[in-house]
Amino acid sequence: MDRLNISEIFIGLSGECRTKGTPTLFIRLGGCNLNCRYCDTLYAKQNYETILLVELYNKIKEMTNNFSYPNHIIITGGEPLLQSDAVVRLCDLINPLCSIEIETNGSIPISDIRNKIEHPFLTFTINYKLPSSGEEDKMYKDNFKEIEIGDQIKFVVFNKEDLIRMAEVYETLVDDLKPFDVRLRNIFWVLPLKKDKNFWRLLENFILLNKLQINLSIQQHKIIWDNKKKKNN
CATH: 1.20.1420.30, 3.20.20.140, 3.30.830.10, 3.20.20.70. Which one for 3-225? Predict the structure, then answer.
């Protein structure tokens, strides 16, 4: 029977990017293939339990009051695509009136899993790893040719080197995405690691001076919860 490695499942407000502030059910899967220097969910790499897919489905159904609230679900990690077959089955079980967002670290192809999932409201958030992560060489660049309307690309930045590299990557990607026209404004997001207003101002100026169609997203959950692990399962 299908099983998933689950680190935690909880309800909260989405803390970043387009769905920031949205009531959300978070399903954090266990295990990851990267070792980012700044990782804030190290516990998910080793602290998880393996549960049957049917048990997870029943838990989700109970926590969301039969998928009525919240009706946005984020599947994150760890790295969800390490368990792609079970994730496909889980997504196809979820009520089609819910929206599902799969957050991936950008190192594993998304095309295979996207083509297998039949859920009508599925999007991907791809995290492009910049130099401060120590994992940029692991990025699967073809993923960015697979972007569809509703998907997001996010950059987590720590320093000026990251900003410069972000602009370089943006320029290589943006030509492939120009058919989306004004919808470009909803694809790219930058998330500063530092809770430092001076750095936030530097970031704002950098975006505007370089004419980047990138949205700034302060990580709301880290401000509210001070990086504390929030768990109620």
Answer: 3.20.20.70
